[in-house]
Amino acid sequence: MLQQFGRLIADVETVCQMKRYYAQLTMMKSRFPMEEGDPLKIPFSWLDKAMDMPNSTVYEDVNFELTCIMFNIGAVHAAIAVNEMRSDLDSIKSAFTHFQCAAFPFQHIRDKMNATKYSSVDFEPSILTWYVNVLLSIKSAFTHFQCAAFPFQHIRDKMNATKYSSVDFEPSILTWYVNVLLAQAQECILEKSLIDHRKNTVIAKIAIYLRDVYMNCCEHLESSGISDIVSSSKYREWLRTCNVKAELYGAVAMVHLGEQADIDKKMGHRLAYYQIASEHVKAAAKFIEKDKRESLRQAVVFATDVVVAKETNAKKENDFIYHERVPKREELGIIEVC
After folding, report:
1. Which of 18, 43, 59, 158 could connect to 64 by a Cys-Cys bridge, CB 3.0–4.6 Å?
2. Is residue 98 part of a domain?
3. Does pLDDT of 309 surpass 60?
4. Is 292 among the domain residues?
5. Entry's Pfam families (predicted)?
6. Where in the sequence is the domain holding 104, given as residue range(s)?
7. Secondary structure in 3-state letters for the chain
8. What share of the chain in percent tops pLDDT 70?
């Protein structure tokens, strides 16, 4: 088993094998004196790649082996997360789960395993803290929005709360809370994808998903009778917010599909996508005409400026340089723009 760990493959099976080995070592440690200075001490050796040293580090202490295995469990979880393509929602969720799982081993080594006695940079508390912070920051906001959605879902489905005369416990309101919170979790994923400069098609898929989620939120607001439960001003504010977000994320998707068309040298398609993006931001601008929230207005203004600039430039280049036919919306393909 140790020989296999010398040629690690970042997959779930490897993690499972390492965890089984860790459990076996823990059981042996509880039954036999295998720690430093004990009668049955065994030499364990590992290469410290962080130090780029050609020779192995050797300790006659089972705790050293446990620490190294725990470290590699975290490293493999992190590698699995990094290797996820994040091209669909299942892959995105898998990446976030593995980032979360990766943080615990480093935290455990730092706080519980007294690893500083082993001369390895990787076991320095400051390094381990940095690993933990990086891994948790990636998934933190996403996780909190997901966690926030669960209580409302649980109240709605399991706690028979409608018998209490509270607007907050109305199933339609609780469903609204759940949908919006899960949508905001996906917004975190979109933001992370933008920061990471993910592929245009990946960003477009996430943005399209968000557009559809907020459109569904609008439909839920209009069909569930929420307008009879909450104040008219609150209802209109919620409806405007969902409509604006749906249009903005539609624009984001079309802009990135236009960017991909530019890369693919499909200049007619590029202009067509930007034109659809322009329709989205114009619709968003109409929704916020009577809205007093400055942050929402600024978001729409910024998106409009970006889209108008891209559309104007694409039209000019296509008119004077490329002369490509601009396809109609229905010709772009339902998978790309739906």
Report:
1. 59
2. yes
3. yes
4. no
5. BRO1
6. 1-117
7. CHHHHCCCCCCHHHHHHHHHHHHHHHHHHHHCCCCCCCCCCCCEEECCCCCCCCCCEEECCHHHHHHHHHHHHHHHHHHHHHHCCCCCHHHHHHHHHHHHHHHHHHHHHHHHCCHHHCCCHHHCHHHHHHHHHHHHHHHHHHHHHHHHHHHHHHHHHHCCHHHCCCHHHCHHHHHHHHHHHHHHHHHHHHHHHHHCCCCHHHHHHHHHHHHHHHHHHHHHHHHCCHHHCCCHHHHHHHHHHHHHHHHHHHHHHHHHHHHHHHHCCCHHHHHHHHHHHHHHHHHHHHHCCCCCCHHHHHHHHHHHHHHHHHHHHHHHHHHHHHCCCCCCHHHCCHHHHC
8. 90
pTM of the model: 0.64
Output the CA–CA distances (angstroms, integers) from residue 36 to 30, 33, 41, 122, in the order listed.
14, 9, 6, 20
- Predicted confidence band of residue 131 (pLDDT cuts 50, 70, 90): confident
Higher per-residue confidence, 43 vs 145: 43
Secondary structure in 3-state letters for 271-285: HHHHHHHHHHHHHHH
318 lies in some domain? no
Cβ atoms of residues 2 and 50 within 8 Å: no
pLDDT tens readout for residues 253-276:
999 999 999 999 999 999 999 999
Query: Looking at the 3D structure of the chain, how many domains does it have?
Result: 1
Q: What is the pLDDT of residues 26-47, one digit of tens each?
A: 999 999 999 999 998 899 988 7
CA 107 to CA 91: how far, in whole Å? 25
